[in-house]
Design brief:
Blueprint lengths: L5 E6 L8 H9 L4 E6 L14 H6 L4 E4 L10 H12 L3 E4 L9 H10 L3 E3 L18 E7 L6 H14 L4 E4 L3 H7 L13 H8 L8 E4 L11 H11 L3 E6 L17 H12 L7 E7 L6 H15 L3 E2 L1 H4 L2 H10 L11
Parallel strand pairs: 1-2, 1-3, 3-4, 4-5, 6-8, 6-9, 7-8, 9-10, 10-11
Helix pairs in contact: 1-6, 3-4, 7-8
Amino acid sequence: MIATPYLLYLGHSNDNVGIKTARGLAVFRPDICVGEFRHDDCGLTLDLPRMDFAMARAAGARTLVLGIANAGGKLGADLIEDALAALESGLDIASGLHHRLNDEPRLVEAAARLGRQLHDVRKPRPDIPIGNGLPREGKRLLTVGTDCSVGKMYTTLCLARALEKRGIAADFRATGQTGILIAGSGVPLDAVVADFISGAIEQLSPPRTDGGWDLIEGQGSLFHPSFAGVSTGLLHGAQPDALVLCHDPTRPHMRGLPHYQLPALDECLEANLQVARLTNAAVQAVGIALNTSALPEAQAYELCARTEEKFGLPCTDPYRMGVEPILDRLLAATGIPSTIAQPA
């Protein structure tokens, strides 16, 4: 188990998308985040108290979370130096980078000497089966996207919490580093060997008979040349009854690939439905989620209204506007009452 509370590491970051792990924790688990660590050249903040490692430890922090993502998930020299300083100050380290903490000899030596823990979140369990595609009980929703980092995790978490508020059993199933740190469990899907991706999701979302929902966090995009393979295996393993398409309307091109344009929403949605039908022929689209954080409020609401009218699906910004329209469509489409009475 990763000890909480957390100090969130921003380092030298100046890429808003690159600090999505730290931001996701600050938004969805502020109760376990005591502050942020950033260097003077970092132009970003999570509006948490700025602390050095000793201050954070004195304030009760137990673990420094390397809440950043960079190309290739590398542990750079400056990051290693910061991690060593945090260990010396009495903090454990948690990281979701591909370059594992436990593969860095200096960190391993320091942690052993100081009695500290190194947690590599992107380390899949060793007993993942190969997917079999057999039908299994339960209801599942999967978020899919036009690109990477367009709001799939936010949408999934918002839907899970909204279902719970209506008295409907719901579980958020994390498939990425940020979601795993928020939920406390999950599968780091982009670290799973390709042949086992669908099996990892079958394992993550097993049969359920309580009438509740598994809300499965999507990854990548079928239209992103770098990550479409992960997205495909996820669609097959999830056997989703419902899909929600996530999109950032301000994104000029595929993240990291300026030579690739984003797909049209209708093209992307149909492609995801077609792939999902391999393991669930009855899959349905129940909504479109737009990340409008960069748009003025009036423009954001107008864009959602136009998108809803064009595609005949409820459209909202889940974090900014709520998910009720999508939730209503989901429950109506699957024949589940919109609320379930709570026991006296």
